[in-house]
Amino acid sequence: MTSDEVAPGTKQPPAAAGTVDRSHKGEAAPAVSFYDPAGKKTSLADFRGQPVLVNLWATWCAPCIKEMPSLDTAAAAMRGKIRVLAVSQDMEREKVGPFFTERKLANLAPYVDPDLGLSLAYKVNLPTTIMFDAEGRELWRVSGAMDWAGAEAKALMEEAAA
């Protein structure tokens, strides 16, 4: 899948970059497993109790790579208010850790979803970022790359942290 393709089963064309979608507000997070940085299985349910921003991305996705530095900055700025998870959709897990190291992404941890469970559950293209409240309900999602250090993203995250 290239950066401008959609996940299998998706019927709509990719959304414009940085498009905020609130049409899924209130929907529960899917019961899908992925791997934490230590290689242990986890799921979004394990992060309940604090708002969670989930960024679905891949090392081969140019818009994903472009937004990573600003996502890293946002993770630092929102520490203690919002948990930011960068969940790679790469099937080759071993590429993800070095990607973070090479780009000095110090505020993000390399979570991996090699089975594409989250992308398939949401039927989305990459990058897609989904904000969940502390109870695991979706607040909004952004289809396409966004400047996570910009004013619009900051306002969205502050809204979720309130």
TrEMBL record:
Residues 23-162 form the Thioredoxin domain. Coiled coil: none annotated. One of its GO terms (molecular function) is oxidoreductase activity. It comes from the Bacteria. InterPro entries: Redoxin, Thioredoxin-like_sf, Thioredoxin_domain, Thioredoxin_ResA/DsbE_sf. CDD domains: TlpA_like_family (cd02966). Residues 1-24 are annotated as: Disordered. This is Thiol:disulfide interchange protein TlpA. It comes from Sphingomonas mucosissima.
